[in-house]
């Protein structure tokens, strides 16, 4: 401190001495008429001597003054190289650290928290200045280019000449040349403006060099030309993403982490114009996000009430006036489905967003709706370590639990953006990858996903308000007539199905995490045993759904139906080295029928263990007893149960029935399988459920889509539940081990046995429920 003050005083004294000497020099020059070098050098030596003496005295006085006033001391610290390196490392990951991070860093680097805070502020200011300089240099280059083009036009106007002979041209040819140059110049201006505007929107922040655009955005952009043809081949577009994006650090650059994780060769983002295609995908995602937000917020006249079902429906006359067609004209023969649903769900908004942006977690969250999903390409991984600005190219296969409905195969963009604090939006929009399945394909059907997705608003109590919008177009020629009303009503794959499935899954996860147990049947079960039971039931239900719908991707081979009829699907596969299944040849049969009773009534009948003898041959004609139940939600009907036959045969003393039941407004499931007693003891004690071998069978119940109002009914447990009016679409599926020899083929006797079992079960169910009052 003393040295710095002495140094400052020395510099001040030197400056004053130099000023006095300069004045003396001027006076001497005026009196003598010339400069005296010897006298000047002597003056400098005397001056230096006087300065040293004066500085010494002043330094002594300053030291005495500092000793008398110790409170006025100031310390100036310069960070070490190690401290700067640690600060730079954290700045790359977190440019805006919170108070906790700054406190930890200050302790680690032995700095004051204010020093850390000011360092980050100065670093951000420095980075912003660098970015602005870089942007300005780019704009200056473009300005020079435009000036050069302008000079070319002026020269052509002043000295017109013919390209062939070199002679002067007539005025008409000059006007044509000028017109062509002006058109080209305007096109380049518009292209620059469009790309910078796109980057500005995608980054979600204002950029100083873009506040004054060069020209208005071109209405007939490359997006409209390409998307209008519904093809991504042969783009005619010269723009690329701004080089400024490559200059910004990873934490604030949404385009840095561009990785390709393609699982299929789509050819969309390959080729020489890869960056051009990416910019078009960005523009498509922004347009889809804008449409989703408006569709979630607008009311009448865009959404009008449906008097038959008590829900709202999309007014397509208003829709076509408000929104442009961003993915082209609807193909001939396609039908449209648009629904919207709002509900409060027990999940954090950020957790839901991360789940939706992860293909594996997304499929795990909606097991009854998604048969398979994959991330084809990650165009943008997000900003500031979050999913804000994340853009992905994905593939999904959506299912309806019936063999009469083909799988909806969709290739789409998924874009996530934070709209406000604690408010997120995730939107999907289809792109054409050339996967147009003919109606004869049977397994898959063509489908297009118009801007669809959800708006998630985080609430203070751990819940989130979710507004879901589903808007699709599909070819229904491959759908069985029995299921067409259901698909058109939106109860199969509409917004209500997604929200209901999400709520059921979140309640199951919350119940699994909670240590509080209200069910007396599972009070003696440990936490590990409870988790193992739920994992085992989840595997059983997934295997059941795969046997009904996604059979082609799980090794099933379809057999000729024979006397079954065209509405029955019979399949076979070989189970080898799978600890969760018995080894051998497995036969599966599934069909769907219409039962003229409400879905809730049919569901309560099938899950009632006391009436199981009326349809299940495993009960030996008598009721069953529930020995264990693990709740999966607030509803008593959503649970995993262990059942024991009251009438036990000599060969069935070591057999139990594992049953998984769940229900919501769109679908109800009753899935069961015989399991070994000793294996279940291991699971109930927290053992690995992957080694329990079984083959699932069960039922899927969906409303028939007749359009009647939903009614509130009382379940078997006395709880009130909302059930769609009208009939039920019942899907029945069985899986049976027909031979332990892998070289055997299913015999006609085995196929006939499964046929009789299915026919008998369906007839018994119809007889039982239709005879009830």
UniProtKB/TrEMBL annotation:
Domain START: 274-511
Gene3D superfamilies the record matches: Homeodomain-like
Ranges of compositional bias, category Basic and acidic residues: 34-47
Keyword Transcription regulation appears in the UniProt entry: yes
CDD domains xrefs: homeodomain (cd00086), START_ArGLABRA2_like (cd08875)
Molecular function in Gene Ontology: DNA binding; DNA-binding transcription factor activity, RNA polymerase II-specific; lipid binding
The keyword DNA-binding is annotated on this UniProt entry: yes
Start and end residues of each stretch annotated as Disordered: 22-56
Keywords, in A-Z order: Coiled coil, DNA-binding, Homeobox, Nucleus, Transcription, Transcription regulation
Boundaries of every Homeobox domain copy: 70-130
Residue ranges of coiled coil: 124-191
GO CC terms: nucleus
Chain residues forming the annotated DNA-binding region: 72-131
Organism domain of life: Eukaryota
InterPro entries membership: HD (IPR001356), HD-Zip_IV (IPR042160), HD-Zip_IV_C (IPR057993), Homeobox_CS (IPR017970), Homeodomain-like_sf (IPR009057), START_lipid-bd_dom (IPR002913)
Location in the cell: Nucleus
Pfam families, sorted: Homeodomain (PF00046), PDF2_C (PF25797), START (PF01852)
Entry similarity comment: Belongs to the HD-ZIP homeobox family. Class IV subfamily.
Protein name, as recorded: Homeobox-leucine zipper protein ROC5-like
Organism for this UniProt entry: Elaeis guineensis var. tenera (Oil palm)
Gene name linked to the record: LOC105054681
